[in-house]
Amino acid sequence: MERDAIVDINKVSKEYATNAGPVRALSQINLSFGDGAFVSIVGPSGCGKTTLLKMIGGLVSTTTGEVIIKNTPVTGPREDVSFVFQEAVLLPWKNALENVLLPIQVRKRVSSQDIRRAEELLDLVGLKNFHRRYPFELSGGMQQRVSICRALIQDPACLLLDEPFGALDALTRENMNVFFNGLWRRTGKTMVMVTHSIQEAVFLSTRVIVMSQRPGEVIDDVAVPFRYERTPEIIGSVEFGELTNKIRHYFTKSNLD
User: Fold this and answer.
1) CA-based, 20 to 30 A from 1: which of 16, 121, 226, 255?
2) Domains and CATH numbers, the chain
3) pLDDT tens, residue by residue, 204-231
4) What is the pTM assigned to this prediction?
């Protein structure tokens, strides 16, 4: 599914000014993500994973280097890049359909075509009968599906996911992983996800980027060899266990000292 590069990260570093002096969050990141790839970024807390994601999305500027999407440098937020965060952050006074249409409403008058698109997305994620339900009437997993539809409504080239299932219980999270694998295969979108779960990263991704402690550097770029359709049964396979253990080895105490 991965095609020509759509995201290029060239010699990117990030330094923050603090009262105690400058803090280097990221150092010399060089990565390229192909069109249609699903890439996960894992690493210790504070290694700059979310900072890197926000730089791809234009929410945080680089100190040195540049991020390029579709041959255009990222200088700020863009309509062809969307975010899904850990919390769904739905407006409680709007129903599911209205929450999905919010990014359109901010820019222009909502058309009948926009409404049809939003309805199709909700149907796609299994919410066919919940278009008019309000957030308090939806489970956590359903709310996150609405959030995903809201991110997809503008047909972005790249979808950025910051711990999108971290607030869900274990069973719902496993179900959402299976659902999201299917959504990725159906839409063909480039997706970049930050997660603390190595198992989740391997289950969902075509590649797993492993980062060091701060300042974050790329210490491995692990290709995931499984076919694109993933089912929970794969988690119990020898190959899956070997791959997750390979990545987990980077974060044992002896390797972090």
Assistant:
1) 121
2) 1-78+189-257 (3.40.50.300)
3) 999 999 999 999 999 999 999 999 999 9
4) 0.88
